[in-house]
Structure formats: C-alpha cells, structure tokens
Design brief:
Helix content is 33%, strand content 20%. By secondary structure, it is of the alpha/beta class. The longest helix has 19 residues, at 183-201. It has one domain: Rossmann fold (3-Layer(aba) Sandwich). The chain has helices at residues 14-23, 49-58, 77-86, 147-152, 158-165, 173-176, 183-201, 241-253, 261-269, 273-281, and strands spanning 4-9, 32-35, 61-65, 95-97, 103-107, 117-121, 129-135, 137-139, 143-145, 206-212, 234-238, 289-293. A hairpin with a 3-residue loop joins strand 8 and strand 9 (143-145). The chain starts with a strand and ends with a strand. The strands form 3 sheets. The chain has an 8-stranded mixed sheet, sandwiched between helices. The chain has a two-stranded antiparallel sheet with strand order 5-6.
Length: 295
C-alpha cells in the first residue's frame, strides 16, 4: 500500500484547525456529523468548544456523541445532555446523542470477534458524512485514543461499547466489566467496529483530525484525569485513519520531550498499537505515511 498523506500544523488554534481541514481538499457532503468526546464532568482535557467552533460552523456540522457504558454522568441521555450544556458544546452548534432513541446493527464484513455486526446509535441514519474530530491522548484501557478509538467505541451505542469491550460476548454494559480479560481481542474488536463505520459511510465521506494537546495518560471519559506531562504537539489530519493514528503514536514514541515517559509506558503496557495493526490488516489504511507540514 502506498504512503498516505498526513497533514500537520503546530498551530493549535481555530485558524489552524480550519487550515488543516482545508488542506485535505475534501468536501463532506449532505448532513455532516462531527464526532467528538463531550468529556466526562470533572475532566478538563476534552477539546475546547471555542477551539472547534469555527470549523464546526464552517462545515455546518452537528456535534454527535453516544452514551457511555460506564455509570458516570453520561450513562443516560438526561444527564448527558446536562454535561453537553455544561461543557459549552450547545453554545457552538447543534448537538445529537446518537443512541438517545435506540440503536441499529451495522454489518462487520470481516474480523473474528464481533460476529458480523456492530451496534451504533440509531440517529446515525440522519447523517451523510462524518468528521472524526478526536483528542489524541492516553487511555486506561486502549492505551491511547485517537481516530480509531473515536470511530469504534465513540460511534458505538452504549450497548455497542459493551459489545466491543467484551470482545463480542455481551451487549450488557453491567456485565462487560467481568469480560475485559482479552486485551488484544478488545483492540482487534475496535478495529472491526471501525471497519463497519467506514463501510457504512464509505471512505470518501469520512475525514480524520487528531488534536494532540493536553496529552494526559487518561481519556476524556475520566472524571479525574492525570495532568498532562508532555508539551502539546499540534494537529494532524488525514483521509486515512490508520495513518493518522500511526503518525501520532510515532510522534510520541520518538519525541525528545522528557515528559513522554508515562504516556509511552501506558501505550506499551496496553499494546495500544495493535488497534492500528489490526485496522491495517482489515484494509482500513496504510501504516506508511508522508507528513506534510503546513507551518
């Protein structure tokens, strides 16, 4: 597979986000979903609404999310809507909790764990294209979270999250916690879920932007995340989810920043790169990339 283009800017501003989106030269069609993490209340590292507002407005996007499989403030829609409001996202754009009214099965045409289907929020049917706008950071279970995690766990419904985390053994969020013993199977299941989303929207209707700032070892789903130890890096964008996550991973591994140790250790401990490896094996993109610096 040939090298994919990954665009990069150190400009962590609204202008930088628009610049890197425009560099992709992709016109997302129809009704555009902007998939972000709305952030667990108590956390503070999620993408700042003021940072993303101009880009979301430019593409006339709707911010979308799903409920969580853990029993935090975003486990049910009523409290999740409060969190969305508290975090300022309702002030910048229309918002939608995709699984508020139910879920649908979309096919997984490949892989070995999810038994042929992924569960996603029913409202996904209302969108024609999606911007995967991800905060790249560590994660307690996945090792890191970027485009692939946002597209798998992020787009999955509450029950779909349980399906992925349990490696296709339960759709019950309360039962999944006893079924998290297969780490590589979980990472492979995330890749399979990504395949289903790409097949659903088609590759030309998806773009991926990773914002590598506030680089905590913990995810935005953590109500009490560890403070970042690394300096911010910048913004990465691609039409290839495998390449953009591989690039971000490589940037951290190869960084000269002395604060990278904890994040690198977490990624290694959880074998985080295996999601990228499996996504590549499933044909979702290339691990070879060319960085195009926009600065």
């Amino acid at each position: 597979m040939s090298k994919s283009k990954v665009y990069f800017t150190k400009d962590l501003s609204s202008e930088g986000l628009i610049k890197i989106y425009e560099a992709l030269k992709v016109n997302l069609k129809g009704k555009v979903a902007v998939k972000i993490s709305t952030g667990e209340p108590g956390g503070h590292n999620f993408l700042n609404p003021k940072l993303i507002a101009p880009l979301v407005k430019k593409i006339e996007g709707t911010i979308v999310e799903n409920n969580t499989a853990y029993r935090g403030r975003r486990f049910d829609s009523k409290e999740h809507w409060k969190a969305i409001k508290e975090h300022g996202f309702l002030d910048i754009a229309p918002c939608d909790i995709l699984d508020e009214e139910g879920e649908i099965k979309i096919p997984v045409n490949g892989g070995k764990h999810l038994k042929g289907y992924n569960l996603v929020g029913d409202h996904i049917k209302n969108y024609d294209s999606m911007l995967m706008l991800s905060h790249f950071k560590g994660h307690a279970m996945g090792g890191f979270g970027g485009a692939l995690k946002n597209m798998s766990i992020g787009v999955a419904s509450k029950n779909g999250k349980a399906w992925i985390h349990s490696v296709g053994r339960t759709e019950d969020p309360d039962k999944m916690w006893k079924l998290t013993d297969d780490q590589d199977g979980f990472l492979e299941s995330m890749a399979e879920a990504c395949l289903s989303v790409v097949d659903y929207f088609k590759p030309e209707n998806l773009v991926y932007i990773n914002v590598a700032n506030n680089l905590s070892i913990d995810c935005d789903c953590d109500a009490n995340p560890h403070n970042p130890e690394m300096e911010d890096i910048g913004i990465f964008a691609s039409c290839d989810p495998v390449a953009v996550d591989q690039c971000c991973y490589d940037q951290i591994i190869n960084s000269t920043d002395n604060g990278k140790t904890s994040l690198v250790n977490r990624m290694h401990k959880k074998n985080a790169i295996h999601t990228v490896e499996e996504a590549y094996n499933l044909g979702l993109g290339s691990r070879e990339y060319e960085i195009i610096n926009l600065d």
